[in-house]
User: Fold these one by one.
Assistant:
Number 1:
Amino acid sequence: MSILERHDTSGVAHLRMNAPDRLNALSDEMLAALQDAFDALMTDSAIRAVILSGAGKAFCAGHDLKQMTQGRQAEDGGAAYFKDLFDRCARMMTTIRKMPQPVIAQVHGIATAAGCQLVASCDLAVAAEGTRFGVNGVNIGLFCSTPMVALSRNIPTKQAFEMLTTGQFIDATRAESLGLINRTVAPDLLADTARELADSIAQKLAAAVKIGKQAYYHQLEMPIEQAYAYTGDVMVQNLAFRDTEEGIAAFLGKRDPDWKQ
């Protein structure tokens, strides 16, 4: 049984974390499997969108606390292991942003600590009604400092700080209102909703989505004048694509585009 399952349908890669007995915790093995899968997808031109889900009762319960406890047994109290763990986790999370394909989190049950970070790191997210989100490490004396990075880039400052300092959960409706997820749906509609979103993206010109995703995240870190200059250059590059020229011609001619990519 694979800890991470993948199947592809019509340009969409479906990844499912498959450690339900551990609530799909981000163990060393899970982190490695996710990193390998995302690295492979980076150069897979047949895939235009990715859906990430979890098997069993939960999407992801964060880091594997049992493994972390074992890591603490080293002579240095686990400092080297923990540094390496969080470096590996950060690399995996940031790889999602670097991928050319949009990644959609399909969330149910709970998404806590680094599991909530994983949702926040994905480009889009849909969740089932009743799903709970939290960065609740503070409840066991461990402030969720690394999950804070992605969370604070998704939701307003005071709401993020409240979640981090109280360790309280929010439900899917609240998560949607804050901007952590895009949509809340009935549990029996969750997979179909994620797939419809992925299919909609997969029908677009892949080269345009790729250059647009890269530009989206780059411009967020820039002052507004620099962002406009940068994105203007990106649009010039985009307009030079043969398929973009065809898309414009098709729109003006009221026909479907004959894209080659």
Number 2:
Amino acid sequence: MTSPQTATHHEVRPTTRRWWTLGTVGIAQLMVVLDATIVNIALPAAQTDLGFSDGDRQWIITAYSLAFGSLLLFGGRISDLIGRKIAFLVGLVGFAAASVMGGLAGTFEILVAARALQGAFGALLAPTALAVLTTTFTIPKERSRAFGVFGAIAGAGGAVGLLLGGYLTEQFDWRWNLTVNVFFAAIAFVLAVVFVPHASREGARPKLDVPGTLLVSAGLFALVFGFSRAESDGWDAPITWGSLVASGVLLIAFVLWQRVASHPLLPLPVLVDRNRAAAFLSVLVTGAGMFGVFLFVTYYFQKTLGYSPEQTGVGFLPMIVMLVIAAQLSTNVLLPRLGPKVLVPIGMLLGATAMLLFVRLDAQSIYLDALPALLLLGLAMGTMMPAAIQTATLGVDRRYAGVSSAMVNTSQQVGGSIGTALLNTLAATAATDYIAANTPATPTADAMTALASDALIHSYQTAYVWSAGFFLAGAVISAVLFRRKHYAVAALIAAREGAASADSEPVVAH
């Protein structure tokens, strides 16, 4: 007969282990997400040090997003094939090594190569982290709390990157923006060895879909590349529209191949679920609006308000705090009661309102004028991101946890890349048109300086208006596509599976 003490030990220990697992994947996810923005603030210092041109500096950012966005599905499938724990550890070591390579880079070419390697290992690490979380937390109450934390990290990571990047650049050196990842990776590695379980496999090991991998990786690469070139070469440049057309052809070919492949890279049942498809689209739209705005608000703080990189990072703190609070409230209280059909559109509308508040900012504004918009944007992110991410992975077959999680990251990354490129192009065009329409007949130096400042503000306002449009479109899409009752049904199924999983989970470390 089992003693009460033994029974208590059996009940408490696995739960404790699950929360340590959450901390482990949270550290890894923060490292990957913040690396998309932490280097932005370091770019001027890196450019001065290594001597690359203004035309080349975009590749420090693009190399990361190209590798990350184009290899995410492949990384998620590798996670399913070799095991999530092994993939997680390999991703951590590779990301840390690439970060060291970038931190020690003596030339522009080595720095770009290091950023591409960071993106490649990030494409393995990010979906693996989410897959570990998906398969670890199956009890609805615990799952809500865990995804609240994870959603807050996913939403706030970009702003944390700006904060940390500003501090490291000012207090130390731009190279620390890369080598600091070794600290995160080392902690996550030790915790993962102890707390991340080895996933058991049922049946034969599936084979890798090589044609599908090549088609989707090339298609996503062409998509991100095309939008990245739009900023520098224009939308009518052959390299821009040619890349986008090639992307469309490749991605259509990928979907057609997945219908007949014996071991598909992206099993179509992952996509045909209506709620999951709505969640992927919601994450894509959120990424498009969010990352573009981070860029323009950062420029507004530094170029218009005259903030230092460190002050700029601190300026985002209220948004981060609000995001974390809202994420916990939405996942623990609102999502179980309202479901994503109500919560995600509300978050989108809050995001659109925040963008319109940003439009009011001009050269005479102060930080307090921007604070309401920042707080509202944090509330919007915390409301919609955890709900969308949790719904995207709820009830998915455990065999496809890695690739389903990769779709979440792919949606956010592709959305961010599209949004940043599109908003940059629209803002640059707006600034050029403003100057052309308002140049005085006899321009003076002072008049042209003032005109350039006004044109910059006008370009920001244009970006904010378009970003508000993204969020409004997302509100309509999410309100139409999400099913009202689906969340409760899937949560009930997950609860039954989770109860069985919890009863059978051993106490000893995996």
Number 3:
Amino acid sequence: MRDIPETVMLFAAGFGSRMRPLTHDRPKPMVTVAGRPLIDHALDQTRQIAPQNIVANLHYLPETLDQHLAGRDVRTILETPDILDTGGGLRNALPMLGAGPVFTLNTDAVWKGPSPLDILRDAWRPDDMDALLICIPLDQTHAYAGHGDFEIGPNGHLVRNGGLVYGGAQIIKTDRLVDIQEKAFSLNRLWDLLLADDRIFGVQYPGQWCDVGHPGGIPIAEALLADPDV
């Protein structure tokens, strides 16, 4: 089994409820920011690490996204009849992802700074880690209304309920997905198993990050991308 991730899973199946009304006629990854669909901004980050394999899961209005990705070296997998959430979607895609750790990347954020996937790859220690999440300090986030998700301990282990925001990018091993009985479930279920075993770690992102899961994030993300001083 390989220890270094060579595959990226793009989460693109969601209903985009927070992005309504823009998602009435398109999936959220096809909403445009600075003239380009969100999925293309995610692919910009993905291409920087030159992965051997890119997989995107589809469910809501899948035809538009499938047509957009055609011919772009992205394999797609349709979740049907039901959407499977992030954990179930990752498990459903395992035949395409292969064995060993994988990158996962949400498609509803914009990054300004170094590649988050590159940072994860440089910090990955497969002997010690079952998951490595990239986290952003609150003062480096934009259009985000929460209070944070994690803290990083002095040894790099993650703990819940801190002032760091999970940015939607990680490296994770997939073997413990078989321990979860539900068909549809959040990645939080897998994280809880890894947290109990002290096998989940975090690394801070040095740049800026914008939540584009809602319409208000679009102009903020566009301003962030256009600002040469950020």
